Amino acid sequence: MTAKLVILGVMIVIVCALIPPLVASSSSSGGGEKREFFIKARQYAYDPPRIIVNKGDELHIRLASLDVVHGFFLEGHDIDALIEPGVRGFKLRHPSEGKEFTDVNEVVFTVEHTGKFRYRCSHTCGTLHPFMQGELIVRPNYPFLAASGGTVGILISTLLVIFLAGKKDKDAMPGGDVQ
Amino acid sequence: MGNHPANSVDKAKDAPKDSGQVKPFRIDLFKTIPFLKKFCKLRSFQFLVIFPNLVIFVFFLYAGLFGSRVGNRNIIIIFVWIFWWFLLITFMVPFASRVWCVVCPFPFFGEWFQRGALIKVRSGKTGGLRNKMFGLNKKWPKALSNIWLQDIGFLALCTFSALFLTRPIVSVIVLGGLFVIATILAFFYRQRAFCMYVCPVSGFQGLYAMTSMIELRAVDPEVCRRECKTKNCLTGSEKGWACPWYQYVGKMERNNYCGLCMECVKSCPNDNISVFARPFCGDIHVKGYDESWKAFIMLALAMVYAVTLLGPWGTIKEWANIAEVGNWKGFGIYAGIIWFTALIGIPAVWALASWLGKLLAGDRSIPTKEIFIKYSYMLVPLGLLAWIAFSFPLIMINGAYIISTISDPLGWGWDLFGTADIPWRPILPEYTIYIQILLLLFGLFFALKRGYDVSLTLYQDKSQAVRSLIPTGVVCAVIIFAFLRLFIG
Ligand code: SF4
Ligand code: SF4
Ligand code: SF4
Ligand SMILES: [Cu+2]
Predict the structure, then answer these.
(1) Cα(first)–Cα(last) distance of chain B, in Å?
(2) Interhelix angle for A142-168 vs B429-458, to 10°?
(3) A156-176 pLDDT, tens per residue?
(4) Which residues make Cβ contacts (< 8 Å) with residue A153, sequence separation at least 6?
(5) Is the CB of B258 under 6 A from ligand 3?
């Protein structure tokens, strides 16, 4: 397989991976809105399980537990909360700043990065505790869009390149140069 | 595979290039690392690597019985289902084939009984073998000489995974039970019948070991064919036990059923066996429906786990968590979906794609069955990488539990290494998705690339080979897209 074909293959994958994010960024609207969510935790899920927002939105999140003590650790946002059942408000801390929890009624932050961020239970709450999680989706979800494009790209480019390589060395031994 | 010809694809039909190897490129590790050869040649090799593991295993059982009942505080859960699983699927199988089977303690007592020795070899005669072995040494029934039992066993076990993943006592029952079965079977059946035909974690290790970057093979198969009359690798000698996995190294061309026990290295009179490093996905021949279905089952389970354990949906967790919630109807739906997808859904799609591939190639002489079985190899790298992509967050999220349970293995409040109280904190969770993307795309690439190598064993014309690959290739891309959607979408 010649270097030229390999470069062609890589180019196809890159182009395919770039198209969906570019389309999404040029057509994306919204952002900068105030979004309020009330997330209820119970064994072993959050309600709502998925929250979908736009980049730049300001999130106001309140938390409550319907059964036992749960946690709420939001990836990539330095947020960790402890939610006790039967009380208003919850305890909040920023793990990077230290261990102390403070009582709050809501946590407010602006989403800067796009993609999927999971919120997980950070306080052992029962058998399936390690798998208790929800999802914050910040749109446009560039990583997902790029990866989806990349999938199509790999499909097309791999098949195309092996096809072209096969055509090229038609006189060579069968299967001689598949690497 | 040699042991159940009834199931294997007729080899005579294979196109000319059927070497069983993608490429002869390989590095003789016994030559480059003389210490490795020395170690493997030790009579005590097996004992030295298995015994420490046996001690650890017994301790895990003890912890499961008497330690904390909270899963993430008990070492049996954290180490077996999170740490061991992660190491097995991410490193051992892809890089070192069935290296787990080298150190696995399950067959320890059975093999000890059969050999009447932990270290030395007994020469003599048992069946066609040159070793004296104890026990009834029966042949395994022919109808079960395939991996169907392992296919179904693993699927059944995984249906109840939410139970033993979270409850130490259930883990003890499952692991201890397998240990007992392995031992009892050794009294009745020849050598490692349990490993070959029963062990639920054997089948997928064998299948995915085809991708492995090492292999144990004859250095020069010509020596086996021409000079070696005794075939001691298979039959044993006064230096080593007959292959416990019934493999004949002279013709061995796949990793699937070699447990890397290194007995043949000792028994070969011609010093003709070595361990080689080789490229990823070196063996490309799936043989028989039992192996194809293993690939389907593994893929289906990876998806089910991605949805159940890494997804946000509480209802599905509730269905899976039958012991705590007791929702039998929900559990029925959950189990039904798993079994249907694994045994009927994915295979049906695959059959359709194989048939379309045959149409596109325009060569009616090759039966759809053969395309179906052979192309199912594409799901081997694909499934393996999907499993790795699934297991990565598991370790990055729960890694802190590994460090804390090591100090407090039974959940009794000990602090052996001063790490018992380190707070739970996921390791770089926001970067996991990028690792997952790379893994999944890599899996798709290898599925297509090796799929093409497989197709060249069916079609001599290259453009025909590529055309035949399109439908199954599209199915693979759709599967990867589904995983992307679950993990990062
Ligand atoms: S096949 Fe199963 S029981 Fe046998 S050595 Fe491998 S893991 Fe252990
Ligand atoms: S004993 Fe050695 S030389 Fe003989 S067949 Fe086996 S591997 Fe080949
Ligand atoms: S082929 Fe050799 S290393 Fe592999 S299982 Fe048999 S005896 Fe052990
Ligand atoms: Cu919880």
Answers:
(1) 40
(2) 20
(3) 999 999 989 888 765 454 444
(4) A12, A13, A14, A15, A16, A17
(5) yes
